[in-house]
Design brief:
Rossmann fold, alpha/beta, 364 residues, 6-stranded parallel β-sheet, 5-stranded antiparallel β-sheet
Length: 364
Amino acid sequence: MIDLLTTMENWLADGEQVAVATVVRVIGSAPRPAGARLIVSSGGRMAGSVSGGCVETTVYGEMMEVLAGGMPRLLRFGITDDMIWDVGLACGGTIEVLVHRLDPALVRAARRCLASGEPFALATVIAGQAGVGDWALITRNQILGPGETWVASLPLDGLWRQPAVGRVHTVAPGVELFIEPFLPPPTLIIIGGVHVAIPLSRFARELGFRVVVTDPRATFASRERFPDADQVLVAWPDEALARLPVDSSTYLVLLTHDPKIDEPALATALKTEAAYIGAIGSRKTHAQRFERMARWGVTAEELQRVYAPIGLDLGGQTPEETALSIIAEVVAVKNGRQGGFLRQAAGPISPSSNGPRVPGSCNL
């Protein structure tokens, strides 16, 4: 939704009505995850998608019917004998898509939350005898919208934990809500402005991370070297970590190869709730580093949190390949996966829409 919010605002400002189609449930493999959206204006403009193109034509027609006065509806698409030459998902999965008219009040509320920088969640009624399409915007402090009554009965504490994955909740017999959180982006803190850190900062930014680079050496920690970083700090990493917000959506990477920098940084990092702590170096380097960490009061059990040697086994040789290996491991940890070849993996390729979800707070 966030990526389409400005387009929604522009179409509404032009005096058009807008219909929204949202993937609310994915069964098996599908081209787009739960939360993917297609929007259509009453003038026929279209943005976003709910599949790889295989069901868009049908969904577009349903959306135009809703804009013409039709009721909200929940659509289901998948491969069947009857549909194989009509619409269907070539990847063999099934998706459920909610189609309803966009409420301008929701757009305004979402924009206010984004402007505040606080996380929030959107709950939408997707099944029930009445109220399909009703929404509620959830923050830590408030629930707002016509679907407020349904949301009030749910335990919402789990909404604020990573990973932020959309879920369908049954709140009463026959009544279902799709709840999707919109959290601030995860943060990648790169300790050591070395050569590998340059492509790593670029890859991380492209993947939606907020990127912080810190190094006590001004020649390494410069904006010229790291134009893609959100923040570049000339500071000893342990001092920087004491100042930076580090929580369960923070990922830490130590790249310096210098014990004077790595060891105090690692000792500090292990006292935080960081979701990931990785350290570059050979197995011998790590064995020696871990032996020395005892003088910092770090136990062997605590060191089990450290991903070392860092990265997935891609056989990388160049700084770019090494950076790819590192960010791939970070993403795998963020998504609760082990990495490796998909053809050797069991279970679904993409996270299910029934996984965990999350929101936050702002003044509405």
